Amino acid sequence: MAKYRIVTPAGASFTTAGGGYALESEALAGMDAEIVEAPTDTAGFIAAARTADAIYGKGIAITKDIIDALENCKVIALGSVGVDSVDVKAATARGIPVTNVPDTFIEEVADHAMMLLLAGFRRLLEQDRMVREGRWKEGRPALLKIPRLMGLTLGFISFGRVARAVARRAAPFGLRMIAYDPFVEEMTISEHGVLPATLNEVMSQSDFVSMHAPARPECTHMLREEHFRLMKPSSIFVNVGRGPTVHEEALIKALQEGWIAHAALDVLEVEPPSHNNPLLRMENVTLTAHVASASARFDEARKRRVGHELALVLSGKWPMSCVNPGVLQDTALRRWQPIGMGRGPNS
């Protein structure tokens, strides 16, 4: 039996299935560690993971019941930016660090956000349909109704890594930028050429609202009907963050009643969406299937990062991206140097 046993849900992944764990195991080489798969039902997973040294979480919820049953777990490692699949509060209470991969595909998500912004603004899908349907002469008149991009305002809700990368891309287009994030210092926002603003200011002043709030309980339905009513009738709403941060019924109402002009969404409140979701039939909506982070390097980068985090913790070191820094309190981990203190899932 290996010295360190890492348990992961069998066959559960948000990317391509199969492929084994060779990439995760690179950083574990020489440590006498093994990654073993466990059933995905709660009882079966608990039975397999009870004495595990680490959990590699993917595809299933790591609930309080599972966490409280762990007797020897030193880390719960995730291969995603979001940590909503883990009860972080329960893990913190047990002194178990939870790690994520907050910076391996930031550039891809920022690229996708700019693509959605520009496609929505220049009515790409509408223009494509006109050409295919033989309505060639309708294209130019449709675009004569929209303003010039330069000088318009892009507003960010949450100003973490992705939003900052989007700001770098948006600056050459001549966009004025504002951001709301109560957890980021105003000087930090300003350093990126972005003006600090309140949430209501972002909603009311922006021609584009780009949503980047994380999937945390306090952010659920952060944007509601009263917020969409503040937006300009010509404005575009972009979301590459998390679907549940938006009250989807309110967004649908805003689109149907013309409070806003367009929504460009990579994420939805329920994924995949029901066939009767009105967003699927609306011409003023651009949709992609929660794919913003995808690229040829996606799987390799995140899997190697997971392996690196596992190796750090199992060798008695502090992980690079611990999302629950309070874990050092009243635990055996007190002996560790809190190198990663203060970091979190900044998306």
TrEMBL record:
What Pfam family is a match, any one?
Answer: 2-Hacid_dh_C
Q: One GO BP annotation here?
A: L-serine biosynthetic process
Does the record carry Oxidoreductase as a key word?
yes
* Any one GO CC term of the record: cytosol
| Xref: Gene3D superfamilies | NAD(P)-binding Rossmann-like Domain
Q: Which InterPro entries match?
A: CtBP, D-isomer_2-hydroxyacid_DH, D-isomer_DH_NAD-bd, NAD(P)-bd_dom_sf
Q: Which residues form the D-isomer specific 2-hydroxyacid dehydrogenase NAD-binding domain?
A: 114-292
| SUPFAM superfamilies (UniProt xref) | Formate/glycerate dehydrogenase catalytic domain-like (SSF52283), NAD(P)-binding Rossmann-fold domains (SSF51735)
Oxidoreductase found in the keyword field: yes
Q: Name one GO molecular function term.
A: hydroxypyruvate reductase [NAD(P)H] activity
Task: Quote the PANTHER family the UniProt record gives.
Answer: 2-HYDROXYACID DEHYDROGENASE-RELATED, GLYOXYLATE_HYDROXYPYRUVATE REDUCTASE B
Concerning its family, UniProt says:
Belongs to the D-isomer specific 2-hydroxyacid dehydrogenase family.
Q: What is this protein called?
A: C-terminal binding protein
Q: Name the species this protein comes from.
A: Dankookia rubra
